[in-house]
Amino acid sequence: MMASASVRDLVGVGIGPANLSLAALAQPLAGLDAVFFEQRRGFEWHPGLLIEGARLQVPFLADLVSLADPTSRWSFLNHLRARERLFPFYFAERPHILRAEYEGYCRWVAERLPSLRFGHQVDAVRWNPRAELFEVDFGQVDAGGGVEALGRVRTRNVVLGVGTEPYVPEPLRPLVGAPEVAVCHAADYLEHRERMLAARHVTVVGAGQSGAEVFLDLLRHRPVGRERLHWVARTEAFAPMEYSKLGLEHFTPDYAGYFHGLEESVRDRLLPSQWRLHKGIDAGTIAAVQEELYRRAVAGGWPDVVLTPGVRVRTAGWLSGSRVELHLEHVEQGVRTCLATDAVVLATGFRERPVGSLLRSLDPYVCRDAAGRPRVDAGYRMVLAREVAATGCAVYVQNGEAHAHGVGAPDLGMTAWRSATILNGVTGGEPYPLPRRTAFTSFGLRERVVPGVPSTRGAAAVALTPLVDGV
Ligand SMILES: Cc1cc2nc3c(=O)[nH]c(=O)nc-3n(C[C@H](O)[C@H](O)[C@H](O)COP(=O)(O)OP(=O)(O)OC[C@H]3O[C@@H](n4cnc5c(N)ncnc54)[C@H](O)[C@@H]3O)c2cc1C
After folding, report:
1. N or C, fewer C-beta in 10 Å, the chain?
2. Does domain 166-241+279-350 have CATH number 3.20.20.70?
């Protein structure tokens, strides 16, 4: 193993939008020695779901930097300037940019930041009590996906930005990994698209944004009158994502601070009840589905599709040959049935990527909540044992802190602000001054003062009982 004697200020694990934002905001900070490792061999953003025409669900200002530093050279607008596309963008008047365009912008940033190392998989993060530093072990990923142990880097701070991974509910797991059946997770849809389009009958399971996008793509590309598509979902409706102006204030630092101050049991009750804020389907996609169905109905009678919400898949298996059998139950009716289909797209969502094995040797130092999850403080630091915390070294978490910071954790609109907060914490200064207030809504009746960030309320609200809260 090749050992490096130098000590970094910051090592980032994973380069998705979260740590790419951090790397972009870290770049101009003279004297900050940061390096970022990504197991993929180049920047990619959910490549299996870059369906033609799919758009971001947030406006372009939720780029990697602008909501913390609109003057940054790494802004989306500066990317457009470099690409000589500012005027077309201005006239297009579409603040919700194409998903493929967002990926292209991120790649443009990634290709220009010298602190990024692609094809590097981080295997372990451990605490060295003698050196009072973290040690990060990494390997190099070859073209075939094999990993060769490569080196170790020592650092004062680690930032985990390992993102999410596809999730398949228990009853559907028997379908995964059987090559004879045409089954894929929506995360890999584009790789399997031709096979899905060619199948006699296709079923899409799940009615989040990715389920709707996959269903729409299949619908648009199968023959009129012979669509042979089923779309089933557990939710009681093909529900729109909440997008009201005040509802969006749940995706602000003010709300994250409020949520962080709640009791753990309240947070755990609240988070699943807020699913419509981020797990529904955006209204434009719902309209496009209805429009395509209507267009087909005009051309040739009712399209051959079945759209049924409120349906749970009880079990799944395959029949002789390559057909799949789904055992369904309509939750409200209590009716059970069996659906035979030739191909299935599992649009069953994503979950935070587990970091248990990565952090195994840190385990004795990690403070956990009642449910066994790492505690994360208001500044996105994992709460570590006093002996580590006293050294000023820290492990930060990006997009793995929904249990502590709420529904905004995976939202691109929070990315730049969270990166700036982390950089303020790592440097112990304020290279990125942050706004004291970010929402018109005053969440809660008592003010919570987040360490390191001045009061978030106007004068009237501050007259309420102030409550200073630690970790
Ligand atoms: C299809 C899709 C569309 C979305 N669209 C929107 C949207 O429009 N608006 C919005 O607000 N949110 C959106 N989201 C939610 C969120 O913004 C994205 O999930 C975003 O990619 C999160 O960024 P991230 O950096 O946290 O994680 P990821 O993008 O998942 O990146 C994590 C990276 O870490 C790498 N990694 C993991 N483990 C290791 C390791 N041990 N060593 C090295 N590298 C490692 C992975 O390879 C990966 O590249 C979307 C999510 C999905 C799935």
Report:
1. N
2. no
At the topology level of CATH, where does 2-163+353-427 sit? FAD/NAD(P)-binding domain (3.50.50)
Which SS3 state, helix, strand or coil, does residue 153 take?
A: strand
What is the pLDDT, as a whole number, of residue 453? 59
Ligand 1 centroid to residue 14 C-alpha, Å: 9
In this prediction, residue 397 carries a pLDDT of: 98
Alpha-carbon distance of 298 to 278, in angstroms, equals 33
The pLDDT score that the predictor gives to residue 463 is 31
Total Cβ atoms within 10 A of residue 117: 16
- Per-residue pLDDT, 2: 40
| Residue ranges of the chain whose pLDDT lies below 50 | 1-4, 451-452, 456-471
Please state, in angstroms and rounded to a whole number, the distance separating the CA atoms of residues 205 and 224.
Answer: 22
- The distance of Cα 389 from the centroid of its chain, to the nearest Å, equals 28
Residue 353 has a pLDDT of: 97
DSSP state, residue 24: H
Residue from 124, 221, 205, 159 nearest 397 by CA: 159
Enumerate the CATH 3.50.50.60 domain ranges in the chain, comma separated: 2-163+353-427, 166-241+279-350
Which residue from 25, 39, 123, 407 has its CB within 8 A of the most atoms of ligand 1, so it is best to mutate? 39
Residue 139, ligand 1, Cβ within 6 A: no
**Residue carrying the six token digits 């753990």:** 264
